[in-house]
C-alpha cells in the first residue's frame, strides 16, 4: 500500500510520447491485499475493505474506498475502526497474497522478459530493452501487462515507464490508481523536480526535517544544492550523492533479476503492553524458532541477529550483533536475542527472567541477516568444539546435537502441523 505523495499535475501534464531510452518499467499493484480480497469476495466490491484485525493490530492495506476515510497503512486497526465503523475488516492472508503475486510475476511479467526484479509482494521492475523487437514499444508492454493482470487476476496495477528505476517508480506512484505514466528521458529532471521531498523513495520524516532545516522544501530546492552542501545537511557523503543524482532524475542502478535474500525475521504484537520479561523472552524464543526453521528450509545460515522492540508510545528500537560463526539453530539465535534484549534496555547481562523490564513493550521480534548458503559456508570449529568431539562417544558437539534435534522438530511439524512441537529454551 503506497503512501508516497502524488502530484495531480504530474498525471495530467502531457509529457510527450518519446519512448527512446525508456526501457525500465515499474509495476505496482493497486491496493493489492484489499483488491485480492475483493477479487475472491466479489460481494465486497465498492465497500471499504481494511486488511488488519484485532485490537492491537495495524492496517496492512486498505481499499481506495477505505482510504477516503483517512485510513492508511501502519495505522492502528482500532483507529481505523473509529474512522470507518462500517468498514469490512479482514485478517492478513499472506499465503494467498504471495501465491497470486508469484503467479502474476511468472505468468505475466516473465512472459515479456526474464529481466524482472521483484522488490516486494506487490511491485517489481522490468528491463524491457531486449523485448522491444517483439513488442514494439515500452508503453505497449505496459498496456498489455495492465490488461492481463486485470483479466486473469481481477486486480489492477499502475505502470511507470522511464529511463531508470527511480523515475519509473515515481511515475507509477503518480499514475495510481490503474494508470500508466510515461516520462521521456529528456524530461526526467523536470518530472522529479515537481515533487515534494517525500516523493523521492528513501526520504523519510527524519531526512525531510534535516533538509527543511537547510531551507529545502521540495525536490526543486534540492536540485539547487551542490554535493558538498548536501553532505553537510545530511551528515553523509553517500546520502548526499544519492540525493544529488535523484534531484536530477538520475539513477545508475540496473534492474537486477535475482536479488539475494537479505534477512529472515519474525515479530508479534502483544494483546496488552507488558513489562513482564518472561512474556517478551517467550516471543523472542518463538521468533528464533520460526526464523531458524525458515533458514533450514531455505538452506541458509545467518551471521547477524537483530532484536526489535516497539514500546507503548509506538516508538521502536533495534539492536544487532554479528556472531563469530553463522548458524541456522534456534539454540544459538535465542541466547543472542536475550543478551541483546538486556543490552538494549540497559539491564545487566543475564538478568533473572522475573526481573521486570524498564519500559512497557508492545511488540517484540527478531531477524537474522548476513545470509549465506549453508552448503557452501565453511564453519571453523572452536577449540572447545574439538575437545568436546574428542571427549564424547559419538564425536559430536552439543550444538551439533541441538541442531539435529531442531531438524527432527522440522520433520514433526511438516507431518503434524506447525504447532505440534515447539523449541524449548
UniProtKB/TrEMBL annotation:
Q: Does the keyword Transcription apply?
A: no
Q: Which Pfam families match?
A: HHH_5 (PF14520), IMS (PF00817), IMS_C (PF11799)
Q: Which cofactor does it need?
A: Mg(2+)
Q: Where is the UmuC domain?
A: 24-204
Q: What UniProt keywords apply to this chain's record, in alphabetical order?
A: Cytoplasm, DNA damage, DNA repair, DNA replication, DNA-binding, DNA-directed DNA polymerase, Magnesium, Metal-binding, Mutator protein, Nucleotidyltransferase, Transferase
Cofactor remark = Binds 2 magnesium ions per subunit.
At the top of the EC hierarchy, this enzyme's class is: transferase
Site Substrate discrimination: which residues? 33
Q: Name one GO cellular component term.
A: cytoplasm
According to UniProt, the reaction catalysed is: DNA(n) + a 2'-deoxyribonucleoside 5'-triphosphate = DNA(n+1) + diphosphate
Q: Which Enzyme Commission number(s) are listed? A: 2.7.7.7
UniProt record, GO biological process: DNA repair; DNA-templated DNA replication; error-prone translesion synthesis
Task: Report the Gene3D superfamilies cross-referenced here.
Answer: 3.30.70.270, 3.40.1170.60, 5' to 3' exonuclease, C-terminal subdomain, DNA polymerase, Y-family, little finger domain
Query: What broad class describes the main subcellular location of this protein?
Result: cytoplasm
Q: Where in the cell is it found?
A: Cytoplasm
> What positions constitute the catalytic site?
123
List of residues binding Mg(2+): 28, 122
Molecular-function GO term, any one = DNA-directed DNA polymerase activity
Spell out the family assignment given in the record's similarity comment.
Belongs to the DNA polymerase type-Y family.
Query: Which function does this protein serve?
Result: Poorly processive, error-prone DNA polymerase involved in untargeted mutagenesis. Copies undamaged DNA at stalled replication forks, which arise in vivo from mismatched or misaligned primer ends. These misaligned primers can be extended by PolIV. Exhibits no 3'-5' exonuclease (proofreading) activity. May be involved in translesional synthesis, in conjunction with the beta clamp from PolIII.
Q: How does it assemble?
A: Monomer.
Give the matching HAMAP family: DNApol_IV
Q: What is this protein called?
A: DNA polymerase IV
Q: Which organism is it from?
A: Bifidobacterium pullorum subsp. saeculare
Highest lineage ranks of the organism? Answer: Bacteria, Bacillati, Actinomycetota, Actinomycetes, Bifidobacteriales
> Gene name, please?
dinB
